[in-house]
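Lab notes, practical 5.
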Amino acid sequence: MNLSDLRKVTVKKHLRIRFSLSNGMECVVNEHGIAQVPALRAVPAFNLEDELAGVQKFVVEPAEAQHKGKDKDGAASKARSYTRVEMAAMAMAGSGVATAHDEHED
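Output from the prediction step:
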């Protein structure tokens, strides 16, 4: 699983994915597929792709939760923790669906 896989998941499923970096900062991949490190104040001395390789815990939340705190049905939206294995499965499932769809159109 790489950063591109996470970006695809966030865009397709309209999610935000957060994970901690080894330096204590946090990376957020938003619903537009943009990876951000909010605490970053200068040119980073790390590579996000390299940092992602060591991440074991991800927090996933609906993008709407950031703005409204509720999902489409009016229920409170909650963040959920995923292990690396679970996150990789979600990322691969999302890319597999896109591949099957693309092949079908040909």
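Observations recorded by the TA: Strands lie at 15-20, 26-29, 35-36, 57-62, 80-83. Residues 84-105 form the longest helix (22 residues).
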